[in-house]
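Protein: Endo alpha-1,4 polygalactosaminidase
Species: Kineosporia mesophila
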Amino acid sequence: MLRRLATAALVIAGIAGTLANPASAGASSTVPALPPNGRVDVQLGGDYAPVRSVKVVDRDSTGEAVEGVYSICYVNAFQTQDYQKDFWTKTRARRALLLKDATGEPYEDPNWPGEFILDTRTRNKRAAIAKIEYTWIDACKAKGFQAIDPDNLDTWTRFPQLERAGNLALATLLAKRAHGQGMAIAQKNAGELSRKTRLAVGFDFAVVESCQVYDECGLYDQAYGDSWFEIEYTTNGAGNWQAACAERGDRISVIYRDQNIVPRGESAYHFQEC
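Structure follows.
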């Protein structure tokens, strides 16, 4: 799952949504399409000026769109950010939207301490979560972003209390909102979903992490053709990135990044493209 070091809290407010019919959602042909094999720069750790050759930038929703570049707005759609702890836990209504353990305490992502898992198991909870996240989508649109990158679709695979159907129903709500704003929406995670399911939800393209490592890249090819891009990480070694470049670097953007995706200029920064 892609991550960023957020520097500012999101403004949370919004309008409640109703559950969309997955069979009628579908990927939209009226939203801005991901540029084919456009060099991608993922900047979730902090904004910086992209080089001239960059055609696509993926930035956190607290950042700004880049004029003249296809700008994707990252939101953590299926779990929370660590800086939002008080927002999600200090009121009964929002705390009720967090998945709880047997003692009634919210589950945290073991890999990202302070990030709680959103509970998508009921229609009412999904509507309440969507009410919050619609404002993030609307704010991204107001800033000039062309697309949404909703992270952690796959929480049901990591927390067995959750169900795939609940996460897909929330994703469908978010896709409908994005399309209503004239924005595309990406699939993030859950590579095992069928092409039929992806299209039913309404995903337009995919943001893919480490598929070379997990042997999932062909699944995205089958579902999206060339409408996806791939991030491989330095923690998995250069061999995976080099193999990905050899297999498909001539038709999609395949980038090699440091795990925390820090801004250019920091010592841990690493960026390469095929």
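Remarks: Residues 79-117 form one domain.
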